[in-house]
Structures are given as structure tokens and as C-alpha cells.
Amino acid sequence: MTTDRPSHRSPREPVAPAAPRKPTPGSGRESGPTPGPTPGPASGPGLGVFDKDLLDRCISCGFCLPACPTYTLTGQEPSSPRGRITLMRALESGDLAPDDPTLAEESSFCLGCRACEPVCPAGVRYGALLEQWRDHQWRGRDRPLIARLLMALVSRPALLRLQGLVRRHARPGRRPGAGARAGTGAPQATRRDAPEAASSRPAEPVSLMLGCVERGLYPAVSRAVRTLRPEVDVPPGQGCCGALHAHNGDSAAGAELAHALGERLPGTIVTTAGGCAAHLAHHLGRGRVRELSEYLELTGHRPAGRVTVDGRPARVALQDSCHLRNGLGVTRPPREAIAAVAEYVELPNAGDCCGAAGTYSMLRPADSRAVLAPKLAAIEAADVDYVVAVNPGCLRQLRQGLRRGGSRVRALHLAELLALAAAGEAGGSGGAGKDRGEPEAPAD
Amino acid sequence: MTVGTDPPGSLADDLAGLVGREHVRVDDGALTAYARDATPLYTARPHAVVLPGSTDEVAAVLRYATDRGVPVVPRGAGSNLCAATVPLSGGIVMALTRLNRVLEVSPAELLARVQTGVTTAALSDAAARQGLLYAPDPGSRTVSTVGGNVATCAGGLRGLKYGVTRNHVLGLEAVLPTGEVVRTGGRLWKDVAGYDLTRLLTGSEGTLAVITEVTVGLLPAPEETGTGVAYFDSLADASRAVAAVIASGVLPATLEFLDRKCVVAVEEFAGLGLRRDAGALLLFGDDGPTGAVAGTLARIGEVCADAGSPEVTLAEDVARSEALLAARRCSLPALSRLAPLTILEDATVPRHRLAEMVDRIDDIAARHDLMIATFGHAGDGNLHPTCVLDPDDGAAVERSHKAFAEIFAAAIELDGTITGEHGVGAAKLPYLADRIGNDQVALLRRIKRAFDPAGILNPGKLGS
Ligand SMILES: Cc1cc2nc3c(=O)[nH]c(=O)nc-3n(C[C@H](O)[C@H](O)[C@H](O)COP(=O)(O)OP(=O)(O)OC[C@H]3O[C@@H](n4cnc5c(N)ncnc54)[C@H](O)[C@@H]3O)c2cc1C
Ligand code: SF4
Ligand code: SF4
């Protein structure tokens, strides 16, 4: 046995590299990259940007590569989850300068969709690493201007309230049955629905969270929730959940806002935004936070009515919300809810990111559209009438994309679809056949 | 998407002239990301990364590199575990991920032709869509490229019945370092004209030529597949059961084992309901005509029970079979949940000596006070002893090197080899002569010179 040979590998100086046979042509760059080994996995005291045990988990097996939309776009290692973790390690160990342009580029090119997480057998929590990375990378003036503006906007409850006034929203604090009138265009609760809701009124309070984006753009969504589940309260004075901050380099504010909102909203928090759900669940505990479809299932709500188009059941596809799917593992309930009121059609890439990714579609519109393109193609190929989103950002992205492409397909939020179905039955109007417009339009 | 578009130095400019600027990376970040593969503890940065988009571009870069004496390291998905794509001498990493088109699948000829950067899973899927089977099935199939599989001669979970990649390659298009494009083999199952350069390039680990296109043989997809699990008290018991299964005259497609640590780690990820308290698990599977599979599985189950398995279960449906195989494929990364540093090795012994080898590994681990989990393609005698440890514990890391040296020596002593499927790379080059002898090492070098007179292709690996 040959145990006395020099060990075949050692952590610091893996293999003495042979010098290049000839000097590399023209790399007359003093500080140019030199060949030869660089230190192995970060060890010892690092910069302190990352949690060491989070960073240590990745073994560079590459199982996450095929799941990553940015790697799919470029085929280049730095824009893969594994490559980005290698970059993070180099940042932590000082092998890359903190102001390295590739570090900046990749921390922003990443969608934060976390598609790399569920496929990682080693259990790497990439989303947490990305938040730590952006905390470091996007400080102060380095944070993109749009992100700064948005963060400032949503951190002010007064401004958020203003949005709620401008766009008629589910009225905070009151139930539709208690004198409040839901928006004119929003379908009313159906007869079949009402008694069931009343009887299953939970002992614990249930609060609907009004997402920042949603309250501005899609008030019809929360109105729809209220018609579906009148027992859900809409407490006034809601702030932002902080997901926006956490994803844009301010984890501390993200955590603070989540906890503050947790105190303001009593009981179970129902959200209609996958991104908010994952962020809140992370900070308040999984038990307190329910995304709408999950909540409906949990409370035994059976969606009522049918959505029809030209007398036949509507063909409806789902776009998963990345954070709901990859962060919370919720995939079945929204599908079953759709299947209960329409013909459910599974898109081959339903689980792939749509490119909205929070502020991403504003910060990197070209990349965002490139990520969306195959999804739009799949939607067209599937010959559906509607595509349903469970997150307002995705809804906006899909609507814009479909509109740009002149598509006949309409994008709806799940709550809107279910309300549409219920209204169709209640009103006996034959569903969505004639009016395939976006249901909130008349109300605004 | 390129960062730092105006790098200093003419290497970047020259390469940009050959493949287009957006397909050349010389920024520190990219060089860092391409400094490693799936092998722990090895990193070395290249001077540039190029991503050619055609065979002609591959040839142009290689010609240029030969002229200037710049090392070139071909790279697929970088999922190898022997530091085969670490650019030890710097130079150019040539990533082949852009060459990712399935060119044809021919049911009439039972073959497929793909560009080199197509993933193994994409090739399998393309074949399956036509009712055909691409048999090689490495654990890394969703990630690894067909070119990488050919260059390492990858094995996999179906190796027992179908062999390794080599048994399925009909022809190659490859570019020599001098820029000449050669087409070896072709579209025929029978073709014995000349030296078998297809086989020579298969397993050449990027040291002889850059493979740009691969023609593989396909099989009619089996009508049925099935999988079962037998638990054992120990890995040694499971190994004896493997010998009994083979001796009983059945040749299943899959016969994999995992020790207790692997079972627990895999269960942690996949949540399949495997028994965490079992000492070891034998995963067996077969495919074939309708009705035949159930019989084979039942027979294997009986043999396992006779060999002492307290519990044998068969997967009820195809989905569950797939889940079991998928879980097995991720044993390595799942194991890494146990400790931050995971070193996996690859040794093979003749099947009838498997139990002996397992005992030796246990003994070596105990003597060096290390946690070594073992899993592998038991039916092929191919073991993956995997050491999990703390990278900050320098003494333990040192002990792990000694332990692996002893494990390789033990494999050779039992008429086995230092690698059954992962290849030699940089990590096992020091052990190569132990296995094949100095004369053959010298012959390898002469072959290498014939293909690569300037010695630019993947220096520090085979033939160096
Ligand atoms: C979790 C896990 C499971 C694995 N399971 C298995 C398994 O079951 N069986 C198995 O055999 N391996 C397995 N591997 C190892 C690895 O996936 C294989 O060696 C695979 O074939 C490498 O493919 P790649 O595309 O990643 O190649 P790379 O890692 O990029 O390259 C590997 C070698 O091939 C050369 N090369 C790559 N492409 C070309 C080309 N086009 N032309 C010339 N040379 C080229 C490179 O220079 C290098 O020497 C596993 C790895 C992991 C991480
Ligand atoms: S993140 Fe997970 S899947 Fe990706 S390389 Fe690291 S360990 Fe493998
Ligand atoms: S979060 Fe999404 S885009 Fe970012 S590395 Fe993971 S899979 Fe890729």
C-alpha cells in the first residue's frame, strides 16, 4: 500500500500548477488573472457578508443549473446558482474585490426566483444567501434608484392608504354584509357561498393583507376575496410586508416591516401575493400565513360556479408564483381551485419564473422579457382562454406580455377567476363568454 | 451578457475576433466561476473563457491556441468529480454549453445525433419521445452534457444491463488541437475499418480532442420498468445479496446500494418514506417486455430475502420507481447535508469481492477516525466511498487523503481499479501508474503527442 505518497489533494494548495508553457499572449496586464490555484472553500474569518454554514452547504454539484432561468438564457457559469455561490465565496474570502463589476452584475441579474432551491439535494438556502449578498452589494446609493423609490413609497402607510382611496379597494374594517358595498364590477357572493362562509366562520380572526402592488394596481383582487370569504377582515392601516426591502438589499427593514405588519394584522394572515406570503411566513412562522388558495382549501371552501366561454368550460392555465412554489412548496391548491371552476390546463413551464420577480421587470426590462418569452409561447400553444396568477407582480407581467403580443388570452388573479365563477352562477349570465375583459375595469 | 467589455490584453481581443465578443469572458468574476468544477478542494483560474457556437469556431480557437501554446480545457457542465476541468495551467476554458442542439433522432436507424453540449437528460427525452431509449443514465443526467459523458465514459444506474457510455457511441465529430476536424465511426453498428478512434476518444477526458458532435445508438424503449427496495442490516450483507442475485442468473438493469448514512440523507431530501433505521438498502430495477419485469423483480426479492433481508418492497407504479431512482441519483449532494466538506471517490472491484471491499473501507474509515459513507452501482462492483468532514479540521482533511490512498490501493489489490466511471482527472493522476503500470503511462503519453503535439489540451491530466 502506498500511504506515504504525498497526499493527492490538500485544501490550501491543491496541486502545484505547471507554469504555462509559454507566457500567455498579450496578457500584458500587471494585475491580470494569474493562473494557478486560488484558495479553496472560504474558511477562517471572512468578510462576514454571509452566514458561513449557509455558504458551506453548496458542493458545486450543479444539480441546480437546469432549473435556473438566467443560466438557461446565457449558458454561462457566473449566471448559474452554482456560479453565483462561487462568486459569493470569492467575495467572502476576499478573492474578488467588493466592488467587482461581475459581482454587482450577477447579484442584479439573478431573478431571486429560488427555482434553484427545491432541486438542490444539499438543501442550500439560496434565497437567504441572495438576501445577504444584496444587503452587501446594494447599500445606499448602490441600490438601484427604482428600488429606492419604491421602498420609500411602500414604507409610508399614509401613501399606501392614499393608493387605496384612489383605487377603490376592499373596504378596510367592514364586511360586505355589514353595509359596505363591494365595487360595482366585482361579483357578489353567491347564495350558495354565503351560508357556508357564515357557518365556517373561524374562531380565530382572519386578516386579509393588502399587498403594496396589489392595492395600487389590482384592487379588484381583494374585493374578490371579500366576496368569496366574507369572514376575512381587512384591518385598516396596513403597511408593507417588507418583501420588497428584503429582496432589494435591506433585510433588516424587511424583517422589521414583517414583524410590524404581523402585529397589526390579527390572527391568520391571508395574502393574495405569493411573494408576500413567503416573506411573511419566513418571519412570522409558517402557521400564521396562508396564501389564498391554501386558505380556501384549509377552510374547506369549495369554489362555486363555472367559468364558461361560448358556452363551454373555459380553458384555464396557472402561472405558479416562484416564491409560493419554491419558497413555500404550494403548488396543488391553486390548481385544484381552478379545476373546480374551469377546465384546468397545465403549462409545460408553469413552474418557471415569468420574469416579473418583484422589481426585476422594472430594473432589467430586457432580461425580464427574455425570461417571459418562452412562457408566452407556451400559453399561446396551449390554446387557453385565461392564465391565472397568484401574485400581483406576475399578473402585471403576464398582462403586459400578452397585450404586447396581441394575444386573445387574458390574465386573471385566482381570486378574480373564482369570483367570476361564483358570479356566473349567481347571475346565470353564462359566465365570461361575452365579457372577457379584465373584471376590475368598471370599478376603477 | 458580458461584463467588463473592454478587457486589456490581446488574448481577449484575439478570441473575440474568433467567436464574437459576447462569447468571451475575461472578467475576474467569470474566471473565478470557471476555476472549479464539482470536485472539492481544487481551484485554478483560467485567463479567459470562450463559448464557441460552432465546430468551425472550436477549430479556430484550437488552431490559435496551438500556435501560441495556450492551454485549452474543454468543459461541458463541469459536473465531474476528479478536477478534470480545473485549468491547472491557466489558459482558456472552452465551455461547450452553446452547442446544445439535438440534431436528429432516427427511429429507423436506432440512433441520435446531438451537439456536444446537449444534456444527457435532453438526449434521453428526445429519444423517449420517439419511443426509444438512450441507455446510459449517470446520476448527474439532468446536468451533465453528452460530450462530458463521452469524454469521461460515464457510467450510471443502468450500467449492469447496458454498460457504460462507450457501449453506445457510434461516431464522433471532434476537433484536434491543430484545428483538423475528424469524424470517427459513423452511423453504423458494424464498422471495423481502422483503429477504433471513437473508443480512444471516449474516456479521453478532454486531452486528445474537443468533441463537437456525438452519434449514439438507441434501443427500443422497454415496455415496462419496475423498481424495488430491499433493506439489510449492513452494507456487507447487502453486498453478499448482490453476489447472490447475480449468481441466481438474473441480470437486472439496476442494482444500487446505499449505506445507512446515505439512506437517511436521501430521505431527508426526497421524503420517500424509506426506512431510516435500516443498515443498508439495495435498490433493484429492471425493464423489459410487458409481464417480464414483475417476474424478475419478484425473483430478486426472493434472493434478497434468502440473503437475510428483513424487508423487501416493490414500487407500486412508474412514478414511484422514478422517484426512487431520482433519490438515488442525488446521494452525493444529499450526503453533503451531514458536513460542509464532502469528498466522493470512485473505485471498482470485481463483483464477487464487493463485500470484502466494503469491509476494507469500513476498516480504513475506523482506523483514520473518519465518517465515510458508501453507496454505489453495486451490480457493477462500482463503489463511491464518500468522506464527510469539516474543512476547517486540517488534521481530518489530511487523514482523509491517507484514507483514500489506502482505499485505491485496496481496490487494486482486489483486482479492481481506481475509477470505474468518474475518470482520472487531476485528482487521480498520481494513482494511474499503480493501476496501469509505467509502460502504459508512457504509451498514453505517446498517443497524446500524436493528437496534441503542442500539448495544449487539458494539461496536467491524462497523457501528461
Ligand atoms: C451528483 C453527481 C452524480 C454523478 N453521477 C455519476 C454517475 O452516475 N456516473 C458517472 O459516470 N459520473 C457521474 N458523475 C460525474 C459527472 O457527472 C460525469 O463525469 C459527467 O460525464 C461529466 O459531464 P460534464 O458535462 O459535466 O463534463 P465536465 O465535468 O465539464 O467535463 C468532464 C471531462 O470531460 C471533458 N470534456 C467535457 N466536454 C468535452 C468535449 N465536448 N470534448 C472533449 N472533452 C470534453 C473535460 O475536459 C473533462 O475532462 C456525477 C457527478 C455528480 C456531481
Ligand atoms: S446549490 Fe445545491 S444543487 Fe446547486 S451546486 Fe450547490 S449543492 Fe448543488
Ligand atoms: S434565484 Fe432563480 S435566477 Fe437566481 S440563481 Fe436561483 S434559479 Fe437562478
Strand content of chain A: 5-15%
Order of helices and strands of chain A: HHHHHHHHEHHHHEHEHEEEHHEHHEHEH
Shape of chain A: globular
Structural class of chain A: alpha/beta
Ions and ligands:
flavin-adenine dinucleotide, iron/sulfur cluster
CA gyration radius of chain A, whole angstroms: 25 Å
Residue windows where pLDDT falls under 50 for at least 5 positions of chain B: 1-8
Amino-to-carboxy terminus distance of chain B: 36 Å
The biggest sheet of chain A, with number of strands, parallel, antiparallel or mixed sense and barrel status, is: 4 strands, parallel
Domain count of chain B: the total is: 4
How large a portion of the residues of chain B is in β-strands, by DSSP E? Answer: 15-25%
Structural class of chain B: alpha+beta
List the quaternary state of the chains. Answer: heterodimer
What low-confidence regions of chain A span 5 or more consecutive residues with pLDDT below 50? 1-43, 173-200, 426-444
CATH topology of the largest domain in chain B: Uridine Diphospho-n-acetylenolpyruvylglucosamine Reductase, domain 3
Largest sheet of chain B: 8 strands, antiparallel
CATH architecture of the largest domain in chain B: 2-Layer Sandwich
Taking all Cα atoms into account, the compactness measure Rg of chain B is 22 Å
Of all chain pairs, the largest interface belongs to: A-B, 72 and 96 residues
Q: With helices defined by DSSP (H or I, 4 residues minimum), what is the helix count of chain A?
A: 20
Supply the CATH class of the largest domain in chain B. Answer: Alpha Beta
Protein name (chain B): FAD-binding protein
Keywords (chain B): FAD, Flavoprotein, Oxidoreductase
Cofactor (chain B): FAD
Family (chain B): Belongs to the FAD-binding oxidoreductase/transferase type 4 family.
